[in-house]
Each structure stands twice: as structure tokens, then as C-alpha cells.
Amino acid sequence: MTIKDDIKAINKDIKKAKNFKWQVKRAKYWLVRLKNIYPDYKFKTYFTPLRDKNIIFIDYKVKGVD
After folding, report:
1. 48 in Cβ contact with 54 (< 8 Å)
2. What is the pLDDT of residue 25?
3. CA nearest 54: which of 20, 22, 30, 13?
4. Angle, to 10 degrees, between the axis of helix 20-37 and the axis of helix 3-15?
5. Which pLDDT belongs to residue 65?
């Protein structure tokens, strides 16, 4: 799998969490795992507030590239 496939699957997993509290826990868990698996990438979480549900998702950037 590539990093794009991994991020896509992880974002789906976070989105499936039953409420915002569990989304935060899943995002923290996956950030630690991703940092260990892909040390050359910088990961960042984003938060999208919606009327009925808040969504957290993870994005990445190669370290050293601005």
C-alpha cells in the first residue's frame, strides 16, 4: 500500500467513530502509528465543523519541503 491509500483508509476509520470524542482518540492513535511507519513525512490533523457532525481528518507533507 502507498501512503495515499493508508491515509484514505485511516480517514474512513476516523469518520466511522461513533462521536467526536472517539474521533479524537482514533486520530491520536493513527498519528502515532503513522509517525512510526513513515518517519520522512509530517502529519497534520484538520477539523471540519459541520452542523450535525464534526469531522477530523489527517493530511501529510514530505519533511523538508515547504
Report:
1. yes
2. 92
3. 20
4. 160
5. 59
